[in-house]
Amino acid sequence: MASSDHKKSTQGLEALIQQARRNEAIAAKLFDIELEMLRATDLSSFIDGLTENVRGRFELDDVWFVFTDIEENRRLLHLLDSQGALSERQLISTVDFLRLTDNGSYPLLRNRPKALARLIPSHLREYIGSLAILPLQMEGRLIGALILGASDGQRYQPGMEAFFLHQLAVKTSAGLTSIWAREQLRQLATRDPLTGLRNRRDMESTLEQELGRSQRYGQAMALLFLDLDDFKHVNDTWGHEAGDACLIHVANHFQALLRRDDSIFRFAGDEFIALLPGQNEASADQIGKRMLHELAQNPLTRNGSEISISFSYGVACIRPESNSTAEELLRIADKRLYEMKRSSERRKSQTATEDARDVTSAP
């Protein structure tokens, strides 16, 4: 009898030791994941690095984020898109999210995920057998979840111990809050507050980088310098609120026309600069013409009236064989811009003179 008790005691001790070792291994993985979070330099590297690390270290089939549709999250997702983040992520209404997750702050484990299909990307729904839903918070507000998916229907089940999953949720929430705060500070330093475009300071550093890349890899790049025509007339006629609306309208249409690799900046006032990697002067000129056509087809509507917007532009091109400086490129583009502006003004003046002559000579 004593021998049997001793054997049970030994087995129990061994089980405790094995559990302690498993817990230690999990804690070590969580520590490594937290270190990787701290090394992230921007939001996309944080999100991509986290999903890849969690998936790899815990041998999961997939890991993704779900965010509620609050305005803060829309801005967060927009930034992720602009940074080219690769991780799966989706937006869901706050009401649906709270309903599906029981408005909980502790991890939710489910091995019959069909009822939670709204939380699963459509291409994953066929083979995900169980889920761990880790609620995420920023500044005390529930903003979504990190979701761990497994094809094994027994991997996550209601009632299972979720202490380490809760630890991962807390670490992820803290890391996301920190990186998002840093991104917002960076936005304040590098973004124009009115249009949301990158500002002159950011343009100058980006242009220097592109010059170096051009000379290093032999890649051409065009610079397009744009200046709105008669912008003062818009302010004087319609008011400064209309002027601000005009700048936002122009910025939105410029962004929509450019490729993913292109960059558009608000340089100063009603001046904008587009950097176009891989483009020569001829193709940059075509882009300028497309922008003019786009604005001509889409005037700004203000209080039921249409405000026509046009601009003049100048093109300069980085040639890999040259040692052009940023100052030289800006000077060339600026000179060509004002040549176009003067030419346009001469045409307008000539047209006005001809119209006046026609009126005075009429019978």
List keywords for this structure.
single chain, 363 residues, alpha+beta, Beta-Lactamase, Alpha-Beta Plaits, 2 domains, 4-stranded antiparallel beta sheet, 55% helix
Mind explaining what this structure looks like?
The protein has helices at 2-39, 43-57, 71-83, 94-100, 163-190, 200-217, 231-238, 240-257, 281-297, 326-361; strands at 62-68, 89-92, 108-110, 130-138, 141-150, 221-228, 263-268, 271-277, 300-302, 305-307, 311-318. Mean pLDDT is 88; it is low at 351-357. Strands 2-1-5-4-3 form a 5-stranded mixed sheet. Helix 7 (231-238) crosses helix 8 and helix 8 crosses helix 9 (281-297). It is elongated, with a radius of gyration of 29 Å. The protein is α+β, with helices and mostly antiparallel strands and 363 residues long. It has 2 domains: 12-190, Beta-Lactamase; 200-356, Reverse transcriptase/Diguanylate cyclase domain (Alpha-Beta Plaits). The chain contains 10 helices and 11 strands.
Could you outline the blueprint of secondary structure elements for this entry?
Blueprint: H1 2-39, H2 43-57, E1 62-68, H3 71-83, E2 89-92, H4 94-100, E3 108-110, E4 130-138, E5 141-150, H5 163-190, H6 200-217, E6 221-228, H7 231-238, H8 240-257, E7 263-268, E8 271-277, H9 281-297, E9 300-302, E10 305-307, E11 311-318, H10 326-361
Helix pairs in contact: 1-2, 1-5, 2-5, 7-8, 8-9
